[in-house]
Structure formats: C-alpha cells, structure tokens
Amino acid sequence: MKHIGIFTLLFLILVSFQSKTALPNHQKIVVGAEISYPTYCLTDSLGNPTGYSVELFRAAANAVNIGVVWKSGVWKKLKSELANGQIDALPLVGQNEERAKVFDFTPPYLELSGCIVVNKKNKHLRTIEQLNHSCILVMEGDNAHEYLLNHAVKPNLKTTDTYITALKLLASGECQAVVMQKLLAHQLINDYNLNNLTISNTLNDFRRHFSFAVKKGDAHLLAQLEIGLRIVTENGTQRRLENKWLSTTKDIALRKKTLIVGGDASYPPMEYTDEDGNPAGFNVDLIKAVAREAGLDIRIQLGLWSSVCHKLANGEIDIIQGMHYSHERDILYDYSSPSAFLGQVVICRNDTQLPQELDDLRGKNIVVQEEDINHQFLLRNGFNEELKTVASQEVALEMVAKKISDYALVSRYTATSVMKNKDWDLHAGHEALFYSENSIAVQEGNHALLATLSEALQALKVSGEYRQIYNKHLGVYDDKQEAMKRLYNRIYWIIGVALALIFIVLIWITTLGREVNKRTQELRQANHEYESLNEELVQNNEELERAKEHAEESDKLKSAFLANMSHEIRTPMNGIIGFADLLQKPNLPPKKQEKYRDVIQSCGKQLLNIVNDVLDISKIETNQMTVRYDDVDLEKIVDNTVKLHVGAARKRGIEISTVCEVVDLLKTDPTKLTQIINNLLSNAVKYTNKGRIVICCDQNDGKVHISVADTGIGIEEKLQPKVFDRFIQAETGYTRNHGGAGLGLSITKSFVELLGGTIRFESIPNKGTTFFVELPVKPQYPRQNAD
C-alpha cells in the first residue's frame, strides 16, 4: 500500500502540473537557425539545420514534449523576426544589456571569448585601439557588432551576413581585421584553409554567455525550455553533444595558439631560473616534453608563485607546469595525474628540537611560502597567528637560519637543493609531515586542454622519457643513491682503484641480470593485468550501454503511459464533475436527472476500471499478486461475463455467441479467470464496429482451450510483437482513439501465466483478431491461498 500511495501522489502532481503548464496538444513552435555559424548552427548538405546548439535545443524541446519547426536564415533577419514575434525562439543568442530589453534568456549553456583576426603580416594589430579608424568587418547584428558600437574607440565598421564572408574578404585584403568569437574563428579558418589569417589577440572584455532566447514576456515558453535544458544537462545529453560537436573545434584552437605556461621562479630542483635567466628544473623539462608529444606550442613564464596562481585562475595564462593538489585548489583548477610525490618537512636550526607531531608547532613562529601547499595545509589545521608568509621557500629557510623564525615548512627536495650551497646551521625532520602530489594544472573546466596534456604525460611514462627526466633532476636527491656513493668512496680508498673497479663490475653484472629478470616479470604481470582490465572495461561498457538503452526506452514508455493516464483519468472526472454540476440546477426534469445520474455512474465505473488496472499492474510489478484456487464452472463464468457486455455490443450492432464444451470443473482462481475473459471480451467489443464476437471453449489432454474471436479492426503487423508489453499502447494511438489505459492485455497475459497457462493471438488488419488462452484443468503445483 505504501508504494501505491506514493505512485498515486506523484501521479496527481503530474496531472496537476500538466493541466497548468503543458503546451496544448500537438502545438509546435517555430525556431530560427543560422545557416553558417559552425559548429553551433549551420545547414547540412540537404539544407537541414544542424550543429551543437540546434541539436541541444531539439533535445531540450523533446524532453518537455514541444514540437519544433525550423526556419533557416541569416542572423540579422532571424533576430528581427524573434523581436517581432514572427518566430518563437532562437537556440544560440549571446546575452548583453541591449538584447535583454527585447529577449528573455534561459540559463547559459555556453561561454565564448572574442578575438581579433588579422592577416599574418599584421600580427602587431592586437587591440581595438590600434585599429582606430581602420576597417573592421563584423557580422551584422552580432555580439561583436554591438560590442564595437559601444566601444570608446570608433573604428570604420563594415558588416556582412555571415562570418565566413567576412573572413574571405579579410583574406583578400578588403579590411584590416575581423572581430568575432574565438572558437568560431579557429573553426572557419581551418575549414576554409584561410592560411594567411591568424588570431592576433583574445579580447578579455568581450566574453559572452550564450543561451536559448524567446521574445520578451513569453514566460510560459521560457519556463518550458529551462526545464528541458536542465533535463538534458542532468541526463548527460549535453555532454555527449559537446563531445560530438565541440571537441574537434577546441583541439584545433589548442594547436593554433601559443599556450602560456606559468611556474615558480625560485623552487629548485622542480623549477627555477638558471644563471643565464632561462627556465630550468624538473617541471620545465617535463612540460617541454609533454608539449612536444602533444604537438603544442608553449611559452614558459616563471615568476612569483602567488602571482602565477592568480594568473591561471583569471585566465591570463593557460597552464601551471607544477602545482600541488589540494581540496581548496580543486575548486579553481583541474589537474593531470601526479608527476611526482614530494615530502614536506619541518626545518629548524641545529640548536632547536624538531617537533614529534604537528601539535608541537602550535604557538611557535612558523614561516611558509605564500599560497604554497604548506601554507594551505597549516591554515586547514588551525594555524593562523603563528604563520609568516614569504615569497619563496629559500627566503623561508634564510629566516630560520637568521633566527627570525623558529621553523619553516618546505619541500624536502627544495630544502636539500638550497642548503647544499649555503653555510646555514639547519637540519630537516627525518619523516615528512605529509606528502603532496605535483601535477600539471589548468583552469577549471578546460577539459580539452587537460585531456591533451594527460595523454601526452602518460605517453612519456610509457616510453621511458619521463623516468629520464625524473632521474636527471630528482634522482640525485634520493637517500639510497647518496648512501651508495659514500659506500663506493670508502671501497675506493680502502681497497684501491683496481679492486674497486672489479668489484663494481661484478656487482653491476649481477644486479643488471636480476633487474632484467625482475623488470621482465613485472612487465609480463603488468601486461597481463592490463589485458584483464581492458577486457573487464570492454564488458562493463557493453553492459552499461545496454542498461542505458533499456533505461531510456523504459523512461520513454512510462512517460507516454503517464501522459495517456492523465488523459484517461481527466475524461471521466470531467464527466462526473460536469454532470454533478448540472444536477444542482433547480427544476430539473426527472428524465434529465436520471440521464445525468446514468452518465455519472458510467464515468465512475470507467474511472474505477482504470484505477483497478493501475493497482493490478502495481501488484504484478511488486510480486504481490496472489492466486486463490477453487473449483470453477467455466461455462457459467463465460455466460455471466457475456451478459455484462451484451448491452454494449447491441448498441454497436455486434452479435455475441458462445460455444462451450467443457466437462470437468477447473481448479483455478475464479476471479482472475473472470477478469481474463472480461478483458478479452471488452477489447473485442471496443475494437469491433460491427459484425460478431464468438467465444469458444473446449477441453483436451488435461487442458482447457478458450478463444475470443472478433471481426474488428485487427492489429497492425508492426505492432503485433508489442501487444502484451506494458505501456506500449499508450504510444500506438489505439487508446487515444478508443479510450482506456492500455493495460488490459498486459494484465491478462500476467494473469494467464500466474494460472499456469499461455496466451497468443492471430490478427489480420481490418478483418479481425482471435485470442487463444490455454489453462490446465488441474494445476500441477497449486499455490497456497493468501491469508
């Protein structure tokens, strides 16, 4: 009963919501689509609208049952038609204050930056100010057009209907620049091989959010589109469309531009500026190798660490070559897999006792690098007043050495590198206070760039180049290697050069053989695990795909069923309410009173039948349906059931006849048997306009055979495989034309199988249908009656 109550509550909410907000049945809206704005809005080879924004709008409209008629055209005309109410919506409109006066927008689903496109010989033209009084091309009515009209500098503007026309004119030397969206520029330059054009600069003040747009005041359609957009965002449709349409465009953009890579100018041996002023260190060599592997053009800029972090967050640089992961940073940045794990240690003077645990530092003077991972770690653990922040870890170490602070928390690698060349009376803790992951970082949401960098990093690890870079910069700080060096020195001085060489050669040969065998076994094991994992992933993907298809089909069918149920329940309810109101009229003649009562009673029975069908389906789906066996006279049940339908059949000019030859009493559930025959007869009467219905029953080989044949409209051949499926009739149109919830045959089949029988049918469209039921006279294992 709990499940039934929840179902009923949700169903009533759905009916109420549909009655207030749904668009009228079969209503469609007219939506404009630009003919040349790849890959967002364009036309295919057949002239049909397509693209990311078009498909996203179509999916959102479909999610809320809105039909769409597309109208293609140039942007200027479409924008005017929406403002004048000649079309209902546009799928791709950049938001600004001017447009907000005539349009209403859904929440944005896309953000694009503007840029300046010039001939390669004019790369020096990087700002609008430099183009003052020069000829600039834009698409008429576009965001860029409105942006330039509102700009303090007034260039000589010329407009075109599409951006491809503008770029071709620029390539031929007609103007000095085109201002447009950056990703669109990359796409069009690549598609049309405009090799003499380039993007000279990104306009940071020309960044626009793009949404679906409707005419100002059309709150009803706007609400529907917002719901649809939210649905396709949450169910993953938007992400799939992004991968289909935008991944290639973003990949082109990455390889067309020079990416700015930031890093710390004083963080040896990870990254630092060498004696010649050039970037050096582990992170520098690694990002260069990653860029070469990925085919990216990069420029490395080292500086103050806190400033570098802010630049990435603000989009002023594209990558940070080495950033330690933390929960706080995860909000602002996305990370690759770790390139190194660094231990963070406490440094103090030799006359100061090292802390045994973190709480021993409380109340002490601690210095850390500003916005470093250690700074965030201590703040997260409640340290605040004790902290002093400085620009670099080398300055932090110097402050401890000069007794300005008691302790410093720094990277062990950096501390070892710095103190190697300093005469400082310092020592470090033997155990790291914690370990951090050093990774490549990009701005939050830049998935295309992160995927490219991650794939290249993994390729370097597989090829072995990563290990070479690691050993070059970080291997020398390995404690085990330092111990071996000291051991070799002692052997050299004690035994002599000759014995030392022989000993080293013997050890090297033995170690090499063991290492080769060990690595061979490891590689074999890793390869075996990889193959097993790959097979498991393939199998999981196939299962997920099947589950997704099943879930989507089930969701579609149940949605259609709920829509049909809403229609079927409202129809008798409207009849009951309407004729109940008529009965309240004074001085109503008795004949009309009786007629109105008959209608109310008929509608009530119809509503009761629908509710009973829903309850039966609910019990069947939750395995709560029980069977009560008893001795049953089949002929008597058939006769009684026929009497219930004789009146309705006569009104339609249908003759019902029975031919029953059953000798034994059946051992079965009389209620369910009655409902089986009743459902088959009800369907036969409903779908037969004239002619006859014949019910036959006989007994043979311990089984009873029952058939119900009619001369009705029959069942289309393409629908016959789905006749007994639940919710299927809700989308076939039969219940729309003839009434009913479309559950009768599904319930009938479930009851027949509960009683140990089978059901099948034969049908010829426009000639009739015959259902055949076969039941055992005495079931082999009768179920126990329910209490």
Provide an overview of this structure.
The structure is a single chain. The longest helix has about 90 residues, at about 495-585. The strands form 7 sheets. Strands 13, 17, 18, 19, 20, 21, 22, 23, 24 and 25 form a 10-stranded mixed sheet that branches. A hairpin with a 3-residue loop joins β2 (about 35) and β3 (about 40-45). The chain is built from 25 helices and 32 strands. It is α+β, with helices and mostly antiparallel strands and about 775 residues long. It is extended. About 45% of the residues lie in helices and about 25% in strands.
Please tell me how large the radius of gyration is: 39 Å
What composes the largest sheet? 10 strands, mixed
Average residue-wise pLDDT: 83
Class computed from helices, strands and strand pairing: alpha+beta
How many alpha or pi helices? Answer: 25
**Estimated helix fraction:** 40-55%
Q: Report low-confidence residues grouped into runs of 5 or more.
A: 1-26, 480-486, 729-737
**Distance from first to last alpha carbon:** 16 Å
Shape label: extended
Sheet-strand content, in percent, reads 15-25%
Q: Number of DSSP strands? A: 32
